[in-house]
Amino acid sequence: MSTADVGRLAGYSPQQVRDLERLGVLPLAPRAANGYRRYDARHVIAARAYRALAEAIGPVAARTLLPALAAGPVDTAAARIDELHGDLVLERRRVHEALRGLDAVLAEAAEEYDDSDAMTIGELAQALGVRSSALRHWEREDLVRTTRSDGSGARSFGALAMTEARIAAALRAGGYGIPAIRSILEEVRAHGDAGDAQRILQQRLADLTRRSVALLAAAGLLHDLLTSMPAETHRD
Fold it and tell me: CA–CA separation, 194 vs 96, rounded Å?
């Protein structure tokens, strides 16, 4: 096959096919007498496997992982794919935990608060099951916006601050880092609706489903690639 043939069958441009070969994602193609590359079915399978793996774990990670899997023992490749599936399962579980936490947050946010309902940092930390130092850190990172009493200058968590803290706690339980939580809370503040955080997490679940399906496809194509490679390129 020509470079254009492989690109057409795998969904890439000829230049992308050459780049993938240069990066080691595709097996090195032999040259014909006229200097043109000569590809075969293995290159198409490898290109398709890379496309699916890149959709599942990202192109940078896929560029590193696919050549290693193709050249290594079959059991190592199978174990690594299992680990990737496990990572997606864990992330999905964390998102579900965050959604359950947000359900509780939204239910409480619907209740009316007055100034007497404000909490101290210790009270809120105990209610959320986190350390006071975590709340201070979230405040420094602009996840939670507190007020200060005129007299002592102590932090006071009003209705909005308590909602922000509960959202942050739910998302942290879901495995989200500070930058991601800040982005979600900015959306909540911009639209005045904590339900935006729920929609963001639902979108995250949909993305995880897409990645899981892509990883299934990548596993099947990797199997095809391993069985099509010459015996000396990998060990059983």
Answer: 16
Bridge-partner residues for 157, per DSSP? 119
Residue with tokens 């706690």: 169
Burial (CB count <10 Å: 0-12, 13-18, 19+), residue 28: exposed
Q: Give backbone dihedrals phi and psi of 68, rounded to 5 degrees, phi first.
A: -65, -40
pTM over 0.70: no
Confidence of residue 235 (pLDDT cuts 50, 70, 90): very low
Long-range contacts of 122-125 (CB under 8 A, 24+ apart): 123/157, 124/157, 124/162, 124/165
Structure token digits, residue 49: 């496997």
DSSP strands (E only) in the chain: 147-148, 155-156
pLDDT beyond 70 at 105: no
Closest of 121, 113, 129, 116 to residue 153, by C-alpha: 121
CB 180 within 8 A of CB 220: no
What whole-number percentage of the chain has pLDDT above 70?
A: 83
CB atoms within 10 A of CB 140: 10
